[in-house]
Structure formats: C-alpha cells, structure tokens
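[Discussion] Sanity-checking designs against the backbone

I'm trying to build intuition for which residues belong where. Below is a structure token string of 90 positions. I'd appreciate it if someone posts a full sequence so I can compare it with mine line by line.
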C-alpha cells in the first residue's frame, strides 16, 4: 500500500464523487417521498399548508441517511488514481 499526498485534485475527485451520488440519490428519494407524502396528506383531507409543513420535516429526515449512504458507498471504490479506504490508527 502506498500512501499518497492529499492533493487538491484528489480531494476534489473524492468530494465530487460523493456529492454526485448524494445529489442523484437525494433527488430520487425526494421525488418518491414527496409523491407518497402528498398522496397520504391529500387522502387524509389535508391541504397545501400541511404538505409544506410535512415536507419541511421530511427533507432533513430523508437527506441525512441518503448523504451518509453516499459517503459510505464510496468507501473502497477507486476514485481517480486513489481509493478511499479506512485504516486503523495504531
């Protein structure tokens, strides 16, 4: 195993990879959640005000796990000329 310096190019490649995964999965999760929540609120007789309130709470609840999974899924994958791995501190 060769340890390399964290250059700006390498950091940007890793950041971009995680960010794009989070963005794509986040948009998909948001669309699905908004559809399901809107149907539920409308079926229970709620209006647009309730949908906005529910969406304000649901956004962070959906976003946090999606962003964590995006970072987790990048572990062990090749990103440019490096691979993001965790090494135990000794």
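Best answer:
Here's mine. Compare freely.
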């Amino acid at each position: 195993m060769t340890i390399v310096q964290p250059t700006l190019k390498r950091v940007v490649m890793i950041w971009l990879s995680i960010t794009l995964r989070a963005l794509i999965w986040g948009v998909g999760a948001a669309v699905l959640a908004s559809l399901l929540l809107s149907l539920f609120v409308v079926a229970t007789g709620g209006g647009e005000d309730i949908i906005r309130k529910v969406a304000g709470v649901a956004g962070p609840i959906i976003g946090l796990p999606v962003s964590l999974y995006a970072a987790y899924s990048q572990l062990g994958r090749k990103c440019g000329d490096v691979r993001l791995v965790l090494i135990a501190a000794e």
